[in-house]
Design a protein that fits this description.
Elements: E1 2-5, E2 15-18, E3 32-33, E4 59-62, E5 66-78, E6 81-92, E7 99-107, E8 110-118, E9 125-130, E10 133-139, E11 143-147, E12 156-163, E13 173-176
Antiparallel strand pairs: 1-2, 2-3, 4-5, 5-6, 7-8, 8-11, 9-10, 9-12, 12-13
Length: 180
């Protein structure tokens, strides 16, 4: 479900907010902002239409993988005046897959790997796995630097990040040093 909300705005500005339920309304996720910017209440220059009106273009539907939401937004200016425009967003249904990237580099010959992943879970923890061995447990901040320490010429490492609380694991990310 979605609605207009002014809790984080000032004046007549608003944002589009929503909540998701993945179990037919038995439970609901927390309120969250859908629009990526606040919108001023659009002006209505047509004297035959209510001057402070928004909402004609509010529609939403779902296909089992995402929710598709449209709303009236006034951030588009014409001659300096906010105008009614239709904005749209696609909100994924359910948790997003844990995606990992890894970049290798050397400092004075020693090998390091910078790992980054998303999405993160505030307050959560992840196991950092290199070559199928857990090398560290870290706070789920979305970033970790592995000080490998080796000074090899053609080393290859395969990384994965797994959430401690759920066991969900990322894709494998490979770091190669050298040309072989």
């Amino acid at each position: 479900m979605s609605w207009y909300d002014a809790r984080n705005t000032t004046g007549n500005d608003y944002e589009r907010w929503g909540r998701l339920s993945n179990d037919n309304g038995v439970t609901w996720q927390a309120d969250d902002v859908i629009s990526d910017a606040s919108s001023p209440l659009p002006l209505q220059p047509d004297p035959n239409v209510q001057p402070c009106y928004a909402g004609d273009y509010d529609r939403s539907f779902a296909d089992g993988t995402a929710f598709f939401i449209s709303w009236v937004d006034g951030r588009t200016l014409i001659s300096g005046n906010s105008q009614q425009d239709v904005f749209f967003d696609k909100v994924p249904d359910g948790p997003q897959p844990l995606t990992l990237t890894a970049t290798g580099y050397r400092v004075k010959g020693a090998e390091f790997a910078d790992l980054s992943w998303s999405p993160t879970v505030p307050g959560g923890n992840v196991n950092i796995i290199r070559d199928s061995i857990t090398i560290a447990t870290a706070t789920d901040t979305g970033a970790y630097t592995d000080n490998i320490g080796a000074k090899g010429n053609n080393d290859t490492y395969v990384y994965q990040v797994c959430r401690v609380e759920t066991g969900e694991c990322s894709n494998l990310a490979t770091v190669k040093f050298g040309t072989k």
